[in-house]
């Protein structure tokens, strides 16, 4: 039962500017786990320095240690349990405990392998009542891009805010004018503002009628987020504030937001994501799943997780494949009319590793 590890560098089509810096390429690792019966499970680790996940060098080191522990006996025992949320075993769980991206890759390869061995899509292996299509938002940098996305069938548009809150408000207002009153607009500040700047944005952008404002304040400022909600009445979402299920509980306890944006990559895969989703729903919080500009492997896994968790009320942030100049798989999932479809194929359903 061979296990291979590949390190890849995927450049973006063009640099992506955010309030916290510019992303020009993605460094990631792929775990390919074969069972000897013609099945190969794929998993991805894609830490994003400054946004979440472990240090890339640490991710590389831990993955190289972890694959040595993926013996045929360990993998066989895990597959025999038939549960995608089963622990990976004491030694692996201890090794990967502080390295969520590495855990995401190992667990992802195992879950893909499990689904293929059962002749089910990953979503179906996770939940026999999984959704078959997942709504997704489009990412736009200006009002023209927002209008193009709506014309392509997207019902929700996400705008990355510039660092200046008033410029961000102008962007939101221009986008609202371009898309009309039906499409939903989100603005993501990536935690770049202070309370005064966030308040200035909320006041200036009121007529943009946002679906929500995402992470206007730094991750640790939950009390300030709660105060901003009370001051403005605006729907707020958190992303960087949530890197564990326990963080979701803190958001709920402080009433810092109405929506939590969960990144399976930074939560360690399905097990951590499921725990966070269940806690969020228990706290009355809406959930959006998001990728971290991953290859077709990571995006497909996140799409299957969103389908398995039936996260279909708000659009999820999974339509990012167009940002990459190249991909790693032969048949990546592609959004159609603002949705990603879960293919009725065993496993992730994304073909083979390209090249």
Please, could you describe this protein's structure?
The chain is an alpha/beta fold and 355 residues long. It has 2 domains: 3-119, Enolase-like, domain 1; 133-341, Enolase-like C-terminal domain (TIM Barrel, Alpha-Beta Barrel), CATH 3.20.20.120. The chain contains 13 helices and 12 strands. The chain has helices at 56-69, 72-81, 90-96, 100-117, 122-126, 143-151, 165-179, 195-204, 222-232, 245-254, 264-267, 270-282, 296-308, and strands at 3-18, 21-34, 40-45, 133-135, 138-140, 156-160, 184-188, 212-214, 236-238, 259-262, 286-289, 339-341. The strands form 3 sheets. A 7-stranded parallel beta sheet has the order 5-6-7-8-9-10-11. It has a 3-stranded antiparallel beta sheet with strand order 1-2-3. A two-stranded antiparallel sheet has the order 4-12. The longest helix is centred in the first third of the chain and has 18 residues, at 100-117. The mean pLDDT is 95.
Supply the CATH class of the largest domain. Answer: Alpha Beta
Mean pLDDT reading: 95
Distance between the termini: 22 Å
Stretches where pLDDT is under 50 for at least 5 consecutive residues are none
* Tally of structural domains: 2
The number of E-state strands comes to 12
How is this structure best summarized?
The chain has 355 residues and is α/β, with parallel strands linked by helices. The chain is 39% helix and 19% strand.
Task: Note the main attributes of this structure.
3-stranded antiparallel β-sheet, 7-stranded parallel β-sheet, TIM Barrel, 2 domains, alpha/beta, single chain
